[in-house]
Design a protein that fits this description.
This protein has helices spanning 14-21, 38-53, 77-96, 110-121, 142-148, 153-158, 189-202; strands spanning 26-31, 57-61, 100-104, 133-139, 180-183. The chain is α/β, with parallel strands linked by helices and 211 residues long. Strands 2-3-1-4-5 form a five-stranded parallel β-sheet, sandwiched between helices. It comes from Penicillium alfredii.
Amino acid sequence: MATNITYHASGVTRSERSALRNQRGLTIWLTGLSASGKSTLAVELEHQLLRDRGVAAYRLDGDNVRFGLNKDLGFSEADRNENIRRIAEVAKLFADSASVAITSFISPYQADRDTARKLHEVATPGEDSGLPFVEVYVDVPVDVAEKRDPKGLYKKAREGVIKEFTGISAPYEAPANPEVHIKNHEVPVQEAVQQIIAYLDKQGYLPPKKE
């Protein structure tokens, strides 16, 4: 890290920003196998938060960020680690702005997810607390994900075309204590999203639903 840099705090505190926007900033981190349904849930969650609750939310999708922010990264373990580190930093920026960041990444390694959580726990300079981090485990068996396989990735992994593919030739370390655990092969999308929203409401992270 460069040593000739200085952090410049905002002239608006997080509490002031939250009061002005009438919402809290936080990160919702969806993790699970490829084809587990993370992106589908993230899209619907973003839609419901914006449409039904009037909450400013923004989705950071695993594929989308590789078109821009992370287009220089491959899929080696080191590159995957850096991919998650960058996204965690960006998600924290969104959360610090009093927005809800919704990330949907395989993020297969527990250590990387722990790093993302700890990053949010550290207070931004000028603030006295960290930011909420909600880990959502989108859980489906490998055989279910493989049957869905909309991109044909599992087939390519089985054929050896794709190396180090999570769930086949590379590990997926399932979260031990996620805030929300969704068995996504057992419930419809709407119900799964409501599980997440119910948790957010219970924690007081969302403004009351308008009647």
